[in-house]
Specification:
Number of helices: 25
Number of strands: 13
Structural class: alpha/beta
Distance between the termini: 118 Å
Radius of gyration: 36 Å
Largest sheet: 5 strands, parallel
Length: 539
């Protein structure tokens, strides 16, 4: 009986030994899986051919399995690799393998806070801030890694690593990149931005390439050009000894580059856009138009280009007012703009399928008047907070907002239209297919009323001198709207002209000169009608 038990145990032991041994490298508590590829990389870096490196790596792996060496320390694995290389390859190759730091062994970076393994990814992110593109930054970090391993370094100080990285940058990309890299390290890679008149206790905010790109795109720069210029400005700022700069310094730097690389038009436009941030009164951009004209998309694009974070839709204002006022008190508020006429008919009177023009316009005006109460309240609150706004909606009827707003804010209205009736109808049909949750069929059923309201809005816009946008793509509409906004700024900026004139130099034109330059350059393009407020004589 004991013999049978012993035989079974021996068979079990033999079966267990046949299972593949998991090879691990490193200390027992923190070992990681063995990688033949890291051995091959080490051999290739020492000058072995790919075939020779693969053969030696296989022999090393087989030796580990045969002798059940797992886990194995990196030092012992390196010694084994050198020995097998000498046996299977050549003595000169084995000597080079012995002299370098293998890829399966970390290089420790020593600093005041302790030791950490060297990371190519961390170094690449730092190098990316010098102005190298991502591919170049990772290539440079890889060269630093190879440089350290060729020297056989197992441990370096943070200062030595910086010197090695600067040496690689100088050799491959020039002294400027090495100098910028050192400045980034000494100042945590950041540039602080403050206003010209910022108090001493105000903390700078980090410079943002994204915000600068936004301004450049709005100024008319192509996306690639804007990205390149923003990176160049960041690189120039990071190469300066002063790590805190004013917005005016950045503006002058950008304008110099724009004038040289993109022309006076883009430079002047950028200057005007920057001046929006310093207006004496808040800016209210009002985009009107009936359903299906693309107001929401245009409002988002204009707000992005002008750097305005607040967008409201008049339908949202109407929804809030509906929740507060009963249908019995204001029935016209509780329906669509193109159906408001139905609730103005006397009780018991038969409702026709479609209204006449007068009934349609009276119903619409009544609803717009009611919604304007909420819009005026929002506008007054924003004026009190000196906050800019982009508003869009069919209720933004030219002439319906409180005239007092134009005295306390810069109000720039535009009307978005679709002259082609077939195109307008096709948009509703497309939306109905793309978004089944929206009741687009209701719009198509009332298409005649929607077109009638557009005709009414066009008449009101022409009477009030409000610019009308049609026959344009979204990008062209946004470009045109920004131009219309910029055209209204000289009167408001005149309030700041004395202050602005004191800051200028040959590299920086004043606010009014920006507007004048833009006006001269746009002289060949028919100007859009100016709002009534802008037509008043300026003192």
């Amino acid at each position: 009986m004991p013999n049978k038990v012993s035989n079974k145990k021996n068979k079990a032991d033999k079966g267990a030994r046949k299972e593949p041994l998991e090879l691990l490298v490193g200390p027992p508590k923190h070992a990681w899986p063995f990688s033949r590829g890291l051995l091959i990389r080490t051999l290739l870096h020492a000058g072995a051919s790919r075939k020779e490196a693969a053969s030696i790596a296989r022999h090393v792996e087989q030796f580990l399995r045969d002798h059940e060496l797992s886990p194995i320390r990196t030092e012992d694995l390196h010694a084994l690799l050198v020995r097998v290389t000498k046996e299977q390859g050549s003595r000169p190759l084995a000597r080079r393998v012995a002299q370098q730091t293998p890829f399966f062994q970390d290089i420790q970076v020593r600093s005041a806070s302790g030791k950490l393994p060297f990371s190519r990814s961390v170094l690449a992110r730092r190098l990316d801030d010098t102005g190298l593109d991502t591919k170049e930054a990772y290539a440079a970090a890889r060269q630093v890694d190879l440089y350290l391993r060729e020297k056989g370094l197992r441990e370096v100080s943070a200062e030595e690593l910086q010197d090695y990285a600067a040496e690689v940058l100088t050799r491959n990309y020039g002294e400027h990149f090495a100098r910028t890299y050192r400045f980034i390290l000494n100042h945590q890679g950041r540039v602080g931005v403050i206003s010209t008149d910022s108090p001493q206790d105000v903390q700078p905010i980090p410079f943002s390439k994204g915000i600068l790109m936004q301004s450049l795109l709005a100024a008319g720069a192509a996306p690639d050009a804007a990205r390149t210029l923003a990176r160049a400005v960041q690189r120039d700022l990071q190469g300066q000894e002063d790590r805190v700069v004013t917005r005016a310094q950045i503006r002058r730097m950008v304008q110099r580059r724009l004038r040289d690389e993109a022309g006076k038009h883009v430079s002047a436009r950028y200057g005007l856009l920057r001046s929006i941030r310093h207006l004496p009164r808040p800016l209210l951009v009002l985009i009107g138009g009936v359903s299906g004209t693309g107001k929401s998309h245009l409002a988002s694009e204009v707000a992005y280009r002008l750097g305005i974070p607040r967008i409201i839709n008049t339908d949202s204002v109407r929804e809030v007012m509906r929740a507060m006022v009963s249908p019995q008190l204001m029935p016209a508020l509780h329906t669509s703009t193109f159906q408001a006429w139905r609730y103005l008919l006397p009780p018991g009177e038969e409702r026709p399928e479609h209204p006449d023009r007068l009934s349609l316009e009276i119903g619409f005006r009544e609803q717009a008047r009611q919604v304007s109460v909420g819009l005026n309240a929002i506008a007054r609150r924003l004026i009190h907070e000196n906050a800019d706004l982009v508003a869009e909606g069919v209720h933004l009827v030219p002439g319906f907002l409180d005239e007092q707003l134009t005295k306390n804010a810069i109000v720039v209205p535009v009307l978005l239209t679709i002259p082609d009736e077939d195109e307008h109808r096709a948009r509703f049909a497309r939306r109905e297919k793309e978004a089944s949750a929206r009741p687009e069929s209701r719009y198509l059923q009332n298409f005649q009323e929607i077109r009638g309201l557009q005709e009414y809005l066009i008449r009101m816009a022409e009477r009030q001198g409000v610019p009308i946008l049609d026959h344009l793509s979204l990008d062209e509409q946004a470009e045109r709207t920004v131009d219309i906004v910029l055209a209204q700024l000289p009167a408001a900026l005149r309030e700041l002209s004395e202050e602005a004139a004191g800051e200028g130099d040959e590299e920086e034109m004043g606010f009014l000169e920006y507007a004048s330059t833009l006006s001269d350059l746009a002289g060949g393009t028919p100007a859009a009608p100016a709002p009534a407020e802008a037509q008043k004589p300026q003192s």
